[in-house]
């Protein structure tokens, strides 16, 4: 596991951007010229993030996705790690469309789909590419800024969801699944296994699980039978041994892929678990 970064920024959205919430669906332009290092974002609502200038990287419990101004994100409510990169002109801009949980539920109450079965899904982000329709949709949100009519914004949400679903029917079960509850233990296992080979800290894992560090460690031990630090060490060294033995790779070829920043730390961890160095392990096996 990596070391905790005590200077990381934490922000709650949408309340961190606006004093008064105008309705259960609303749009908000966002612009900056500052480079945003990795920040902890607590999304209180679901969010469509339409990029216009710059790039965005988003890490959820289910993994990391990056996107430029050619696309846009749907980010489900929950905890995520987010960073922004300005464009070549030194600017970052996007249009944010915040969507409450109740407004998403109302969409499925208003529209019936033949295959709209209720399926629990991972709360993971979805990246889309823009087309002419979406470009015009963003323009319409910009034109609506002066009106701030909650009813119109809810209609725009229905328009957007219906359009996206017409392009990809699998989105029905995805959005429908976001209306359901998640099994905590199943989610914990998925989160941990997804980040097995990344240099993520215990603190960041707890954040992505929406838990305090003490609660995360307690539930982790109950689920996996070991502390996070020891479990991650054993799992990574098991995989390292398999790569050294079955693929004939050298330690210098595998340490980075297993979440280590330097070879010496990897060798030390390998010896701690297996009792010998990676080179000795290969000679023995």
From TrEMBL:
Task: Name the Pfam families for this protein.
Answer: ExsA_N (PF22200), HTH_18 (PF12833)
PROSITE patterns named among the record's database cross-references: HTH_ARAC_FAMILY_2
List UniProt keywords, sorted A-Z. Answer: DNA-binding, Transcription, Transcription regulation
Q: Where's the HTH araC/xylS-type domain?
A: 186-284
Query: Can the keyword Chaperone be found in this entry's annotation?
Result: no
Matches recorded under Gene3D superfamilies: Homeodomain-like (1.10.10.60)
Domain of life of the organism in this record?
Bacteria
Q: Listed GO molecular functions?
A: DNA-binding transcription factor activity; sequence-specific DNA binding
Q: What is this protein called?
A: AraC-type DNA-binding protein
Q: Say which species the protein is native to.
A: Chitinophaga jiangningensis
């Amino acid at each position: 596991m990596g070391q905790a970064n005590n200077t990381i920024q934490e922000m709650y959205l949408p309340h961190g951007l606006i004093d008064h919430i105008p309705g259960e669906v609303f749009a908000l332009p966002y612009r900056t010229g500052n480079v945003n290092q990795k920040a902890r974002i607590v999304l209180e609502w679901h969010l469509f993030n339409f990029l216009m200038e710059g790039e965005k990287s988003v890490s959820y419990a289910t993994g990391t996705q990056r996107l430029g101004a050619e696309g846009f994100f749907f980010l489900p409510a929950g905890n995520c790690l987010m960073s922004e990169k300005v464009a070549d002109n030194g600017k970052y801009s996007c249009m944010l469309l915040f969507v409450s949980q109740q407004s998403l539920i109302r969409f499925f109450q208003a529209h019936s789909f033949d295959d709209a079965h209720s399926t629990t899904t991972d709360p993971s982000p979805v990246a889309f590419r823009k087309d002419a329709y979406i470009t015009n949709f963003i323009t319409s949100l910009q034109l609506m800024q002066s009106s701030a009519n909650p009813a119109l914004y809810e209609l725009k949400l229905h328009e957007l969801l219906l359009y996206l679903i017409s392009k990809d029917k699998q989105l029905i079960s995805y959005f429908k699944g976001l209306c359901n509850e998640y099994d905590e233990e199943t989610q914990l296992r998925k989160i941990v296994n997804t980040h097995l080979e990344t240099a993520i800290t215990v603190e960041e894992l707890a954040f992505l699980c929406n838990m305090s560090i003490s609660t995360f460690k307690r539930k982790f031990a109950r689920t996996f039978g070991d502390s996070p630090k020891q479990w991650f060490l054993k799992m990574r060294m098991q995989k390292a041994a398999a790569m050294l033995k079955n693929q004939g790779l050298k330690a210098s070829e595998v340490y980075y892929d297993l979440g280590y920043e330097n070879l010496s730390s990897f060798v030390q961890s390998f010896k701690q678990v297996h009792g010998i160095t990676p080179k000795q392990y290969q000679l023995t096996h």
